[in-house]
Amino acid sequence: MKENKILITGGSIAGPTMAYWLNRYGFKVTVVERAPELRLGGQNIDVKGPAQQIARKMGIENVIRDKNTTETGLRFVTVANDTVAEFPKEDTLSMTQELEILRGDLVQILYDKTKSNVDYRFNEHITKLTQLQAGVEVTFASGTTEQFDLVIVAEGIGSQTRKLALSHQPEFKYLGLHTAYLTIAKGPTDSSWARWCNAEKGIVFLLRPDNYGLTRASITFTARENEYKGLSFEEQKSVLIDRIKGSGWESERLIIEIQKTKDLYFDRISQVKAPSWSEGRVALVGDAAYCATPIAGKGTDLAMAGAYILAGELSTATTHQEAFEAYERKMRPYVEKCQKLPPGIPGLVYPQSKLGVGILNGFVSLVGSKAAKSLMGLFSHGNKVPKQEINLPDYVDK
């Protein structure tokens, strides 16, 4: 393919992953990131399935393993902090995976792997895109204008560049939930176990250990779609405190931490449903194209798999149109599978009443019992090798 000067916008996971493979295939790559430096915040993510395969191909699997969060498994607890059930890391039902890492640590690993061969520009973003017959004219916030052969949008669910690039914007499927993330001081009740607590009024608290002696907290709850839209940072903190006040468990501890935090993330949970992931010489990858939400637990898989496949198709196709079509043809079935949630999810996991919370905890207790685990073991036949979720061709050998 003649096009070899490629701009990627977004320096989180999908962007640097794609930058690595494009550089390996001989493309000249520039990555722009709106933030003044790497955004190293965030919660625990797991590197499994396609993401683990790609990490292995990139030679960073052991680096990721060395940055393990130290989490040994998941405990479901009541508002009195009594254990309902526990699922160790090796349990097939556990949220904790073999490669559990903080989002920021993975971002740093990917950046370190690519910074020597990729032109990274921080504190920069695109303000205008003009598609030409032979390229894309890009105007940056800094006032400079530069032409690239292709532009790849690897931004988040609220991507601003996507609005500039596509004439038809994606739909957003709201899942009825808002979520908040923050890092808090480790407390006396914290351990190497993650703790999940359901409270009344549709609230789920989740506290997870990290490898820096701190605790990563998330608060997810039911809400109307635009109930908290357009709030300032301080207003977000205020409404979050009001929402969890009096809900029990460790809510008072979390209220104190919310009051003083500077790294709060607070937003609604929605999936991105885009009819097309490209237009002209611009393509989307990762959350900007097909966010599945944290509920699906497939964000890292989708980001890294999409970046790997799109880069690989660009390396083997004769035209960018051919590459974009092949990328979408290979990725869309996997995206649709990842975005499909079981019936009643997420609603059933966020009961409103004390009775509903009790019923849910009873069900979790049953599933987590020794008898239930033994029964499920009879049907697993001892096979712990996960089946392949999506085909990842060895483009480098073609």
TrEMBL record:
Write down the InterPro entries for this protein, in alphabetical order: FAD-bd, FAD/NAD-bd_sf, FAD_aromatic-hydroxylase
- Protein known as: 2-polyprenyl-6-methoxyphenol hydroxylase
The FAD-binding domain covers which part of the protein? 5-337
Source organism of the structure: Dyadobacter koreensis
SUPFAM superfamilies registered for this protein in UniProt: FAD/NAD(P)-binding domain (SSF51905)
Look up the domain of life of the source: Bacteria
Q: Please give one Gene Ontology molecular function term for this protein.
A: FAD binding
